Amino acid sequence: MSFFGYLPAYILNHSPKIIAAFEMDFLRNLDAFQKALSKNEKFTMFLQLGWSAELPGVAVELRYRLEEAKNAFPEARFIILANAPKELEIIKNFNEVYLASHNAFLDPARYPLAKKNKRKFDALYIARITPFKRHELAEKIEKLHLIGSYSETEKEYFMQTISRFPDAVWSQKVPSFFIGRKICEASCGLALSAIEGAMFSCGEYSLCGVPVVNTKNIGGRDTLLPEFAVRYAEDNADSVAENVDFWVNNPIDPQEIRNGFLNLAQPQKELVQDLINSIAGRKVYLPHKLNIRCRLLPHTKLLHGIRRKLI
User: What distance in Å separates the CA atoms of residue 256 and residue 116, rounded to the nearest whole number?
Assistant: First the structure.
């Protein structure tokens, strides 16, 4: 038997075993997890939602794949962490679920607080350049910074989209430890998709004390946005630009935004912390983003990762 790489999950506690993963990272790799974990092993799996379960098709797939997982691991306990209240109502019909946005697990220490002085950019959009992110809604913003890569399979779409922003600054990638500095350079952050998950960058904007120009959406990113620090634009470029101008000319104290976010996030994080502590029988450290879909140091992978087994 040989080993190669690690599965997309993080062991929060070894005995009893508590694991965190995004739902489809686990459920769509069930065969690989079956090779790596014993069928009769007792563990608790916390599954975060990466896409809106308010969509009927997503909820149906989640329910179906969870049944497969329960059959594969009959001694396991599966707990879903929903990003939006409507997801909670849907999922509670077929699985244990709690309202705890994945943005609640962002580590505030990683994000500097923006200064009150004039910013370099009117707006910043941290988003992979892909159709559902709707970058075209930002094309009338004067001073814009775009941060996000693209898939090689969507390169033509990327070329067409980026050509619409001849005056914008585009950064393909910014290391995670420096993303907060870039957020602090903008008067506001953008959230333009109609459907996705809770959108990590929305929480990052708020932790840096930067307000948001949002659009109507499902997926849960509104759950932890302070009401006083978000403006909703219509689904057109003129409306987005107008709302960006509002934040440029009407700044809010960054500390107030950060505090507003933390006041909303803390009860959700504490709920999960208490639940995990009760399962483990001790205080368990909850790392940044629960260390899932994060770049980890080799020794962290060794201690908390699940090795992929190739038979």
Answer: 12
Measured N-to-C along each axis, helices 254-280 and 200-207 cross at an angle, to the nearest 10 degrees, of 120
DSSP-based three-state secondary structure for 92: coil
Q: Which of 278, 274, 229 is nearest to 100 (CA)?
A: 274
Give long-range contacts, CB 8 A cutoff, 24+ apart: 229-235: 229/256, 229/257, 229/260, 233/137, 235/134, 235/137, 235/194
Tell me phi and psi for residue 275, to 5 degrees: -65, -45
Tokens 């107030």 map to which residue? 256
125 - beta bridge partners? Answer: 146
- Taking a C-beta distance cutoff of 8 angstroms, is the pair 129, 158 a contact? yes
Peptide bond into 16 cis (omega under 30): yes
**Sheet containing strand 10-13, strands side by side:** 10-13, 17-22, 43-48, 77-82, 96-99
Tally Cβ neighbours within 10 Å of residue 311.
5
Radius of gyration from C-alpha coordinates of the chain:
20
DSSP state, 93?
T
Per residue in 260-277, pLDDT (tens digit) is 999 999 999 999 999 999
CA angle 66, 57, 152 (to 5 degrees): 95
The C-alpha atoms of residue 245 and residue 193 are separated, in whole angstroms, by 20
pLDDT, tens digit, 9 for 90 and up, residues 26-74: 999 999 999 999 999 999 999 999 999 999 999 999 999 999 999 999 9
Average pLDDT over residues 213-237: 98
